[in-house]
Specification:
The protein has three helices and two strands. By secondary structure, the protein is an alpha+beta fold. It has a two-stranded antiparallel ribbon with strand order 1-2. The longest helix has 9 residues.
C-alpha cells in the first residue's frame, strides 16, 4: 500500500484509510465511490461465468500448487 508509516492501512473503494480501525473503515465505506475509480468493464457474475478465478479455485482446492 505504500503507507507503512501510517499503519495499519487498508483500502476502501480505492482510497487508503490510514491508522485504520473499525470506525474509520466503516466511515470510509459509507462515503461515495472514489471519483477516479476504474470502471469495471465486466460485471463480477459475467467474469466468474466466463472462467474468472479458475486458477484461484484450483489453488485453494489443492489441484494446483504453483
Amino acid at each position: 500500500m505504500g503507507a507503512c508509516d501510517r499503519a495499519p492501512v487498508c483500502a476502501v473503494g480505492h482510497v487508503q484509510v490510514m491508522q485504520a480501525d473499525a470506525a474509520r473503515v466503516v466511515a470510509a465505506a459509507a462515503k461515495p465511490a472514489h471519483a477516479h475509480a476504474y470502471p469495471t468493464p465486466t460485471g463480477f457474475e459475467a467474469y466468474v461465468k466466463d472462467g474468472g478465478y479458475q486458477l484461484l479455485k484450483a489453488c485453494i482446492g489443492g489441484a494446483r500448487t504453483t
